[in-house]
Predict the structure.
Amino acid sequence: MRHSLMFASLAGLATPLAAQEVEEQGEEAAGNEILLIHNGPRDYIVVEGGVLGKPLSDRADPVRYIWEPDQGTGQRVENIVRDLPGWQQFRRSDARSANPTSQGLTARGMGGNAASRTLLILDGVPQSDPFGGWVNWTAFDSLYLKGMRIIDGGGRGADGPGALAGTIQISTRRGGSHASLAYGSRNSVDADAHLSLDAGEGDITVTGNYSRGDGFVPILAGKRGLADGPAAYQSYGMGARFVTHVGDIGRIEAAIRAFDDRRSRGLPFSDNRNSGADASFRVLKDIGGMSSMLLAYAQLREFASEFGAVSADRATVTPTLDQYAVPSTGLGARFEVRPIEGGFYNDRELRLGLDWRRTSGKTRENSNFVAGAPTRSRDAGGLTETIGGYAEWSADADRVNLAISGRVDHWSIRNGRRLETNIGGTVRSDDRFSDRSGWQWTGRAAVNWWFADPVRLKLSAYRGWRLPTLNELYRPFRLGADATAANEALAPETMVGGQVKLESNLDKAEIGLTFFYNRLDDAIANVTLGQGPGLFPSVGFVAEGGVYRQRQNLDSIRSKGVEFDASIDLSREIVLNLGYAFVDARVRGSVVALMLDGLRPAQVPKHAGRVGASWKVDGFHGDATLRYIGKQSEDDANIRSLGDALTADIGLGYDLSERLRIDLRGENIFNARVEAAISSTGIIERANPRTLWLGVRYNFD
């Protein structure tokens, strides 16, 4: 972003303003918070209509912004995240073919299983699934994004529990109306619309999307059998957000959205469905000269999935598990006040806040099929709750920015139960687990030092923590011949770490180089404890070739590495983007998991990087990206290896008029082999084959 061009959102209208124009508004921007974010020669000025300004601590912390990310036809929100150096989903597959339970968000080698170890927030509301901790990526495809705010490293008090490796905050846009439609390979369709209307003293924004495709066959060609077919998918979402000002109350925001996502894994008895609805209510008000915010939200989720056993010749599939209902609920509230508020005219800030979150849910499933009918059932779940308070102090001095934050939380795990019965008969087991509770603390300190223009040094140290999910605590599961038992005694994960970042903001280049070290204590992982054939606790019989695992707290996962990112203006029309992450993550095993000591966590590549370019000239625009992901292990024992992959994406477009745009996009255009999973019998599943899109977009404004 050039020094003369800043992003502004004034009363919900996204309009670029020159820095001088924003300064001239000053007090005339009534009811708007103006914040200058120091970034060397490229200071960012953000005008937020009545919203709490970006915290002053952003000047000290290693925070990155993505303003108005490209949401052209065929694009997905998760694709924006995957290009952040060091950030990844648990598996390589995207939301069109992956099982939703494998799509936890993590960073910097903090792997082990599919629960998220980074925090994803949408307009102030945490987004991890209340039962399993994964991310429902299709739920975001209907959004019209204003931007993303990425905080590397955990421990920021205002973010709350779960922000171990970092936080991504997504904000949605007001104003503007558009519609787009794209048609792609394998009869794929992506459609979305965004409509903004005046409503009295405020406005209402309505969004919607629809996506479907016949899908590709996940199993590699040489290993397929008669049972293997394409993994079809279909999803839709819709939402509405109402914003207004009400007299002395202040600014009021109310939002609601819903989604439904259905996918097949390419085999009989492999369908899954994920649906949900969210509602939130936020009030922003000046109290005695202090900005304040009150937020309340509710999340409802419903998940279902089928599993089958495939014969050796992959000709037939028999049902093994019907997870027919996984209802869960997330409730939460937050209050924040700023007795001292930083921003355009103040070099100090104090934030104080309280928040509460409760998650509850259970899994209902049938198993042990005989002649196609289940003979056993399971009902397992519970409730977790956290309540905490935080404080954050930020200050600016000559060439130095400081930020210190901390919070204390009380956590509890209650009502844990796992009931197993013979269908239509006796109770096999009825385990009721003891309630537990405790205290955890979070802290972070950050310094930004302008030691030589235009170069600055950012130092930060942090401590964060995460409660185990209800899924990790109470639900055993099977994947092929492998079986994994739950563990109701799991302890919370805690992480300490630090990072050093060098940033340089030159006239035509922004460059960042980060060195980090993290230690995740009591890391929850799926630990191998035995080999089939045999009977094992909580899961029953494991066939020959299968592996028995249980979720365990490891001593720690220790991760160190380097991240590099750069954006270079090669000319007024061409921008080059570079990103690379080297992550050396190792397990430190306990007595139970001693065999894992020194190995890499599952699904963590050592190398990942990308080279991209974008351009726009005379109505034509385009982008091209090369991505590389290194080898990684499918399992905790590092026996099953997934190969590295180099993929290429390209997009070309033309503005037919000021309102009408046409796009041609290609994903993995050379159809590189991207290995996503490997079974105990050596069957390899692939992800993200070549996909071509042709789309149009029309702006009504």
About this structure: The CA atoms of residues 118 and 262 lie 25 Å apart. DSSP finds three helices and 44 strands in the chain.
